[in-house]
Task: structure prediction
Amino acid sequence: MNSRRYWLPGVVMALGILTGCMHSGIRPVAGTLDVPLAADTAPARVMEAIGKAERFHEHDIMSDTTSNVCVMSLDEADQQPTEGYGIVIVNGSVSTTLPHLRNVRQPQARYDSASGQLWLTSSAIEGTGVQVERLYQIRFHSDGQAFVSNTVEPYDMQQALCQRLGFSIDGQQVTLYDGQRPLCTVTSSITDMGGFDDEQPVWIGEQLRYDLSGDTPTLLVTPGVKFNTGLVLLYDDMPTLRATLSISDEGMTEVTDITLQDNE
Result:
């Protein structure tokens, strides 16, 4: 992976206390998100266009024909672009428009017929080397109307991971840990940037996305590395980790297990 972005001065390190006592030489990762992200809100002109539209132009995100549930991206209200906002959910004959949910960067959706809930990803931050997603848990009222029952925020997930993920460095090798348990060791191929940053070389928060292919949503996190020269986080040679989530009916989200992505 060869993604990078400009480093923002003044980013506050989110240094959580790692679970249990760390072995000597294991240091906690830091987080690039220093505050919770503001809720997504569609511009007033988009809301007005949606409210007045006689016809929506949409494309499918998910279609579960067995359960008769589908999710669509709202691209235009009549002829006016929605500027990356708007999700339409159809449950049988009932259609619900959620105008404030973003639909850029190819959102994913999965309907769990056993529990009657819908999972939807939505891009919170995007850019070169940056992919940060929110996860929405959507349920249905008795009349079939959809509503967001829970939002899993990127900052909360970053902070939970910062309390568990650590690293150690030996020459060009970076070892990642979940608490004291080694996850993997990778060798950095970058040798022309003055070595790893002396103060804080390993960060998370720029790449937090979801895999909805399983029974439970899985958070995918790719750590980035900062070097002594250059103002970017680099992702060359760094692995992707899978964090299994437990989400209660009350909306409490917990990271239960962290493993290495299968194809790493």
User: Anything to note?
Assistant: The radius of gyration is 20 Å. Residues 44-52 form the longest helix (9 residues). The chain has two helices and 22 strands. The CA atoms of residues 85 and 102 lie 4 Å apart.
